[in-house]
Request: fold
Amino acid sequence: MLDSKCKMCRRAGEKLFLKGERCFTPKCAISRNPGLPGMHRSSKGSSKSKRGGRGGSEFGKQLAEKQKVKRSYGLREKQFRKYFDAASKKHAATSDVLAQLLEARLDNVIYRLGFAGSRSQARQTAGHGHFIVNGRRVDIPSFQLKIGDIVAIRSGSASKAAFKDLKTALKKYQPPEWLELDKDNLVGKVKRLPTLQEIDMPFKLQLITEFYSR
Reply:
C-alpha cells in the first residue's frame, strides 16, 4: 500500500521530501510512478488539471502551492495562516519573511542540521523533549529559533534509537550555510536566517501571497 506521505508528493506532482533519505533513492514513489494516486486517472482527464499546480486556473495553482508548503512543514491551515499573517506585517517581502519563519521552527532546524531524516521525525523527537535550546529543554516543535540560538541533543537522549549512529551518518552531511554544525558534539547553531534562494524546496511562495490577497 502506498504510504500517505508518498501520496502527498504524487498529488503535488513533485517531491516534497517527506520521507528523508528514501526520497533520494529509486524507491521514491513519485520517481517510480509520477501519476496521481488511485484509479481516477484518465487519458483525457489530465491529472495535471486535477493537481492544480500543473495546470488549471490561477486559483488552483495558488491553492496547490499552499498545500505543498503545508504538507512539507506538517502544518494545519490555522497554523499556516498565522505564519502568513505574521509575515505580512513585517516591513519586508512577505515571501522572504514567511520562508524564514518556517525555516526557523525548531523541528525544521533539527531536520536541516541532520539530526533527523525527515521533518516528521524531527517533529516527533522535538515533541518528546529530546532537544535543548540554549541549555534548556524544549518540547515544542514549532518553537521559533533566533540568530545565535544553540540546539543540541539532551545528554539523556543521546543513546535513544532515533540517534543511533548519528555521528557516522553526519560525517558526509553538510548543513545549509545559515547553520553551523559541530558533528563531534552534536551541537548546532543558527548563524543567520536563510534567504529564499537557499531553501531547497520546490515552492513558489509568491503564489501563496496572491492566494491570501484575493
